[in-house]
Amino acid sequence: MKILSDHISSSRGAQASAQRRRRSMTTKMSPLWPLAGFMTLILLWEIVISIFHVRPFIVPGPLTVLRAIVANRAMLWANFQPTFIEAISGFFIGNLIGILIATAFVHSQTMRKIYFPVVVLFNTIPIIAVSPILILVFGLTLKSKVAIAAFVCMFPTLVNVLRGLESPTHNELELMRIMSASKSEVFFRLRLPRSLPFLFTALKIAATSSVIGAIISEWVGAESGIGVLIIQSTFDYKTEVLYSAIAASSALALLMFWAVTMIEMIVVKWRPD
Question: Is 65:127 a contact under the CB 8 Å cutoff?
Fold first, then answer.
């Protein structure tokens, strides 16, 4: 029996060691998976163009777009900067407003019953319809573009944070009550930590949405930005510049998404791999 027990123990130890090695290898290779997906997409793009003989003025090839990015890098950078400022400012302001409203709703059910439907109503209005109104209010300034980007970010953050703040169970809240915890202690020691995974899920959505909001605001009225460059290159039939601008907007959204993911890995340490 002892020999059998030792054999089972050693077998389990070997399996656990193998699982750790596989997990470690998967972790090391994780940055390669997105790169593999990106390269597959580029290869598929080139294959489709070659097979169906798509004309360059409709869809240029990846190499043509890459050459256009290099050739127009100064123009792309000049238009990248205002869009980045609009998107990052709207990201912070919209998420801050969403978090504050969610905090107010979780502490006041009356306020939630009255104003949550109003927030939902505003969210049903298409952003392309809201943009001219905000531009009329703030003018063709940075404020209007930041307001549009913030408007896009606010609702997903509000809904996710509200759900996270309400995620503690009845037993956990009862335990805090038995320990004579104040409302602020319940919020900062229980509700806020439990809401962090929900918050970062919302921030990832807002990271890309803020870029979309900034570009839409530039479509409605702006002198510079990626959105302006997209419109101009479309009407001028400069397809390679159009795709270069689209690539720049995607790079900005991916950069913001990556930044949120890195912060999440540092802050939310208890989330399983």
Answer: no
pLDDT over 90, % of the chain: 42
Rg (CA), the chain: 25
The residues, ordered by sequence, that sit 6+ positions from 42 with a Cβ below 8 Å of its Cβ are 62
State the Cα–Cα distance between residues 259 and 121, nearest whole angstrom.
31
- The DSSP letter of residue 269 is T
Check if the beta carbon of residue 69 is closer than 8 Å to that of residue 192: no
Distance CA 223, CA 231 (A): 11
**pTM, entire model:** 0.82
Work out the widest C-alpha separation in the chain, in whole angstroms.
Answer: 84
- Tokens 């302001």 sit on residue: 93
Number of Cβ within 10 Å of residue 144's Cβ equals 23
C-alpha span between 221 and 133 (Å, rounded): 12
* Number of residues in the chain: 273
The Cα–Cα gap between 148 and 137 comes to 12
Distance CA 120, CA 97 (A): 15
Question: Is the separation of the CB atoms in 198 and 161 below 8 Å?
Answer: yes
Phi-psi category of 108—alpha, beta or left, where left has phi over 0 and alpha has psi -120 to 50?
beta
- Quick one: average pLDDT of 119-145? 86
pLDDT score of 18 more than 70: no
Domains of the chain listed by start with CATH number: 61-267 (1.10.3720.10)
Residue 127 binned pLDDT confidence (cut-offs 50, 70, 90): confident
Sign of torsion over alpha carbons 193, 195, 201, 206 = negative
